[in-house]
Amino acid sequence: LTLEQALWPALGRQVKIGVAGRTDAGVSAEGQVIIFDADTLDGEAACVSVDGSAVRVPDLAGALNAHLPADLQLKRVDVVPSRFDVVRCRWKRYRYRLAA
Fold it and tell me: CA 4, CA 96: separation in Å to the nearest integer?
């Protein structure tokens, strides 16, 4: 199950995800930044429909996490300007954990 596949039923439409970086097979990313478009409800600029209910953007991570597996959870959802480019971030930090 991919993030895009999990969000589709919750948001009622197919979602295209953009990512700040990618991981190799078998590697986990903590704090990965993603971007996707979500339709706002008429007259409710800060609300998105999740399972047919209006959800405020600050509460969106929790509502969408109900559709995601425990090892793939959203920490926070923010509204960004349409010109926001997730790939051109200011910095990245890599932390490698090796089994001993």
Answer: 26
Q: What pLDDT sits at residue 43?
A: 60
Amino acid at 41: L
Q: List the catalytic residues.
A: 24
Main-chain phi, psi angles of 92, to 5 degrees: -135, 145
**What phi and psi, each to the nearest 5 degrees, are found at residue 69?**
-65, 160
Separation between Cα atoms, residue 19 and residue 33, nearest integer Å:
6
Query: What are the C-alpha distances in Å from 77 to residues 56, 57, 72, 82, 97?
Result: 10, 7, 14, 15, 27
Q: What is the pLDDT of residues 36-94, one digit of tens each?
A: 888 777 665 678 888 888 888 888 899 999 988 888 888 888 888 888 888 777 777 77
Q: Which of 66, 45, 47, 64 is nearest to 56 (CA)?
A: 47
Question: H-helix or E-strand containing 34?
Answer: strand 34-35
